[in-house]
């Protein structure tokens, strides 16, 4: 992006006015847009009352919460705002989902998990073994570091009830072909749950195009507050067990899946994410429907993030003792064919892509040592397993102290990446 463009973007995030910190731990949590914070402030100071009463302020509060739900439905392209279930975190929503699914699971039902996911989309599912579910693991290819589609086929059967997978790995950064996976799972009568936490900050989520039956992500990774979303098809959500009080109707969505109700002020604040994206669209003078304009904004973000990611990846590729964990370029000029072979042709359309979440290890230096060196320069990066413990174990990365992870957002700059590289070079 041009200097004037990135300056406008950064002006929307008060935390970025603090020159003492470079925020490159965005996969752990992004910065919050001003409009989001303003909405939370406004709600708390003018409509902090219980919903459902007949007096004016309560009616206004309810209107705000429902309008926010509609805005969030538009953000993710849901058909009906009743499909939007909100809660404290992705992990918390996953445990609620499993509780609601539990009565529908029969002994012998098969659930396919991956060993690349954050534990939020693994551990909750494993609890269904208590009622007889059979867990199968779709293993990552340790050489390509990809979930190979031909390795999925033997796992599918008429007993497949659910497959749970990440849209983008929070370690590898790889964007997975969830729509194609969903097609294969649906063909045998199963359903798909997609964790979009690492994907949503970098691409505009389209729950309908994803092929998912359930889609979850956290707003605090997408420029909002510590809150989260679970989307599901209306008929599926209606079929789930009621998690609320016994007198709440079984078809009262999403309330039956939101025990204690939503957090009103955070729900209202989350709608500010859409406001922010449309403000950026106004700045760039993008035309079209609100969704088309948001899509154009995300394409702008993607191009900028790709340039920053390649700036860092290029540096890391130059270091013989550094191993990049995941694709070592922004877009790999290969296509995974159905037989599992790779075609080397940069003109192929279905390219393997990554988000700008970049992990690496050094042959001789422990990951904590590298990060602690960077800490002294006011640059926020991180080391560890990032709750993707199965992946770290599979790739034998515990011996390094986990990976060093640099996670870039659209508001980062070339100068910030250059500053990081300069200080990495002191130790690498």
Tell me what you see in this structure.
The structure is a single chain. Helix content is 38%, strand content 16%. It has 14 helices and 17 strands. It is globular, with a radius of gyration of 22 Å. With 428 residues, the chain is of the alpha/beta class. Helix 11 packs parallel to helix 14. About 4% of the residues have low confidence. It has a seven-stranded mixed sheet. It comes from Undibacterium cyanobacteriorum. This is Cysteine desulfurase-like protein. Keywords: Pyridoxal phosphate. Pfam families: Aminotran_5 (PF00266).
Mean pLDDT score: 95
Low-confidence stretches: 334-349
Shape: globular
What percentage of amino acids are in beta strands? Answer: 15-25%
Which class of secondary structure composition applies to the elements? alpha/beta
Radius of gyration: 22 Å
User: Major sheet: size, sense and barrel closure?
Assistant: 7 strands, mixed
**Quaternary structure of the protein:** single chain
Bin the helical content: 25-40%
Strand order of the largest sheet: 2-8-7-6-5-3-4
The total of beta strands comes to 17
Number of helices: 14
Q: Separation of termini? A: 29 Å
Protein name: Cysteine desulfurase-like protein
Domain Aminotransferase class V: 22-226, 353-420
Organism: Undibacterium cyanobacteriorum
InterPro entries: Aminotrans_V_dom, Cys_dSase-rel, PyrdxlP-dep_Trfase, PyrdxlP-dep_Trfase_major, PyrdxlP-dep_Trfase_small
